[in-house]
Amino acid sequence: MSKRSWYVFLTLCALIVISGIVYDAYQSKASFKELLLDHLKESEKIIEMNVGKNRLRSDESLTKITDQATIDRFMDSLSEIKLRKSDVWNYDNDEYEIRLYTSNYRTFGVFFYGPDHIRIYNSAVRHKRYGWTYRIVNDFDRSVLEGLLK
Question: What are the UniProt keywords, alphabetically (predicted)?
């Protein structure tokens, strides 16, 4: 192969590697709105929330919330959360589990781990993004979660 052919080959290889890195970086970003709220149909709304703390302990108690104003306030507080895929999650026995039930019989699960990690489950969609743990990258007031348990 000539010297010019090698340059073309190496340039193509570099472009493929760079495009893979850019694609991976793009896929690792998400938002709560994108992963959960955008999947609710226009006629569908969340009708019930079950909130629990430290679900792996035997003394777990769930708080059932059906008040629509409380549910809407809570969902509004979560709607601006920005997320980034994380391979490491900080589990420090401070875990919240929130199950959301919709009017179309779908279930969403939101799991808060430690101070800034979250996992979202969607019963209707089996996309790989729902198996990932995310780190919350913007400000989030955890007192909203604690207020639900009172």
Answer: Membrane, Transmembrane, Transmembrane helix
Please give the biggest Cα pair distance in the chain: 74
In the 8-state DSSP scheme, what is residue 92?
A: -
Provide the token pair at 15.
Answer: 């472009």
Per DSSP, what are the bridge partners of residue 113? 95, 117
Residues 6+ apart with CB under 8 A from 68: 45, 47
- The sheet carrying 29-31 orders its strands as 29-31, 82-86, 133-136, 117-122, 107-113, 95-102, 46-53, 62-65
Would the pTM count as exceeding 0.70? yes
* Contact indicator for 144, 65 with CB cutoff of 8 Å: no
pLDDT tens for 5-51 read: 999 999 999 999 998 888 776 666 778 888 777 777 777 888 999 98
Tokens of 128: 């790989």
Domains located in the chain, CATH noted: 30-148 (3.30.1490)
